[in-house]
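Holo model, 2'-O-acetyl adenosine-5-diphosphoribose. Inputs:
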Amino acid sequence: MRQLQAARRLIDSASRPVSFSGAGLSAESGIATFRGHDDDALWNQYDPTQLASQQGFSENPELVIEWYKARRRTLHAASPNAAHKTLSQQNNWIHITQNVDNLLESAGADPNDVLHLHGSLLRDHCNANCGFTEIISLADPPDLRQCPKCHAALRPSVIWFGEPLDDEVFNLAVSHVMACDLLLVIGTSAQVYPAAGLIELADQHDASVVLINTESVKLDSERYAFVQGKASEVVPLLFNSEPS
Ligand code: OAD
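Output:
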C-alpha cells in the first residue's frame, strides 16, 4: 500500500511522463507473455531461434508464417484491458512499448504517441528489404507469399532475434526517456536489450521510475517504486480511484 501511494504521488507530480511496457501489459487481454512462469509463455513452449530469427525463417518459412498467423488471429480476438484503457486516456503521455500488438491504440491512444520498439503484427515487409510494406488483416492473416515488387518472401514487421531495432523509433524513444521525469514500467522482464536499457537511462537522467509487475523484478527496486500486481488492477488504481 505504501508503494502504491508513493507511485501515485510520483505520477501525480510528473510533468513529462512516459510509459514503457512489455508483454505483461497485454497478458490479461489474452496475449501470451514470453518468459512468464505459466505454461502459456511463448518461449516456454517454442524455440525463438526457429520462430523469431532470420535463420529460422530461411530454414522453415511456412512454420514461421503459420505461427504468426495464429498470433495474429489471437490478437484479432483480443480487446484492450483496463490498463490499456487507463493509459490511453492520459494526456501528455508518451507510450514506449515492446509489444507488437495494437491494444493501446485500440483503447484510444493516439498512434503518434505510441512507439513500438519491436515492430508490429499488423504489418508485413519484404524480407529482402526492397522497401515494400503492407498492412495485413488480423482476421484473415496471409499465408507465406512473395513480395510483389522483388519476389523475395514477405515477413511480419517484427524485430527478430539478432536484428537491430528501427533507428528512428529507438532514437525517438531514447530522446523521450532522456527528457522524461517519470518512467512507468509495466509488465516487462527487462531482459531484452537495448529496450531494457531505457529503464537505466531514465534513472541516469534522474527520472523517477515506477515498476508494475506480478513478479518482483531483478532491478534496483530499492531505488524504484515497485508495485506488485496485475497491470489491469494496478494501473487504474494509480490513476483513478484513491486507494482505501
Ligand atoms: P516477458 O515475457 O519477458 O516478461 C513479461 C513480464 O510481465 C514478466 O516480468 C511477468 O512477470 C510480467 N507479467 C505477467 N503478467 C503480468 C500482468 N498481468 N501484469 C503485470 N505484469 C505481468 O516480456 P517482455 O519483457 O515484453 O521481443 O519481453 C521483451 C521482448 O522479449 C519482447 O518484446 C519479445 C521477446 O522476445 C521481440 O518480439 C523482439
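The first strand starts at residue 17 and ends at 21. Strands lie at 17-21, 94-97, 114-116, 119-126, 133-135, 154-158, 182-186, 208-213, 225-228.
Archived with the compound record.
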